[in-house]
């Protein structure tokens, strides 16, 4: 494979993207869970908001996995892989709506940190497609975290 990025850099980028994929999939599952189980006076608003968010995360999972494949590596795809790679904790039980929001803010902020951690190697390897993907993910996660955070203001 000769796409202008050496094997060592491709492997390092794919490894980082695998962590991003695991975080994204874990947050997708958490958001979908909260969509199904939210209750309270903000039910309709949160139910619809969470649906929009998990749909976006579902599309992102595919984009990230396909970038890993384009770099010549296999994308992780099992719960065991994701549990080993993610830095986002699973929800315990069914939290109250406000705690769901707080957990999702933390999840999106975690994804921002995971994505930011990949810019150095992508830049060093002149891997613009990965850098572009990371920029798009950051824009989405920062905006979503801001919107969710706004719901927590008194």
Automatic annotation (TrEMBL):
<dbReference type="GO" id="GO:0008199">
    <property type="term" value="F:ferric iron binding"/>
</dbReference>
<dbReference type="InterPro" id="IPR009078">
    <property type="entry name" value="Ferritin-like_SF"/>
</dbReference>
<dbReference type="InterPro" id="IPR008331">
    <property type="entry name" value="Ferritin_DPS_dom"/>
</dbReference>
<dbReference type="InterPro" id="IPR012347">
    <property type="entry name" value="Ferritin-like"/>
</dbReference>
<comment type="similarity">
    <text>Belongs to the Dps family.</text>
</comment>
<protein>
    <submittedName>
        <fullName>DNA-binding ferritin-like protein (Oxidative damage protectant)</fullName>
    </submittedName>
</protein>
<keyword id="KW-0238">DNA-binding</keyword>
<dbReference type="Pfam" id="PF00210">
    <property type="entry name" value="Ferritin"/>
</dbReference>
<dbReference type="InterPro" id="IPR002177">
    <property type="entry name" value="DPS_DNA-bd"/>
</dbReference>
<dbReference type="GO" id="GO:0003677">
    <property type="term" value="F:DNA binding"/>
</dbReference>
<feature type="domain" description="Ferritin/DPS">
    <location>
        <begin position="16"/>
        <end position="154"/>
    </location>
</feature>
<dbReference type="GO" id="GO:0016722">
    <property type="term" value="F:oxidoreductase activity, acting on metal ions"/>
</dbReference>
<dbReference type="InterPro" id="IPR023188">
    <property type="entry name" value="DPS_DNA-bd_CS"/>
</dbReference>
């Amino acid at each position: 494979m000769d796409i202008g990025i050496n094997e060592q850099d491709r492997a390092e980028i794919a490894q980082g993207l695998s962590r991003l994929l695991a975080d994204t999939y874990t947050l997708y599952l958490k958001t979908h869970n909260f969509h199904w189980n939210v209750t309270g006076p903000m039910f309709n608003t949160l139910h619809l908001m969470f649906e929009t968010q998990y749909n976006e995360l579902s599309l992102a999972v595919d984009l990230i996995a396909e970038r890993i494949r384009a770099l010549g590596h296999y994308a992780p795809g099992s719960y065991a892989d994701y549990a080993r790679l993610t830095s986002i904790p699973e929800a315990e039980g069914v939290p109250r709506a406000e705690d769901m929001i707080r957990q999702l803010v933390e999840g999106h902020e975690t994804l921002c940190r995971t994505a930011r951690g990949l810019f150095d190697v992508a830049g060093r390897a002149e891997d613009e497609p990965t850098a572009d993907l990371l920029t798009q993910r950051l824009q989405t996660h920062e905006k979503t975290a801001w919107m969710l955070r706004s719901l927590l203001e008194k």
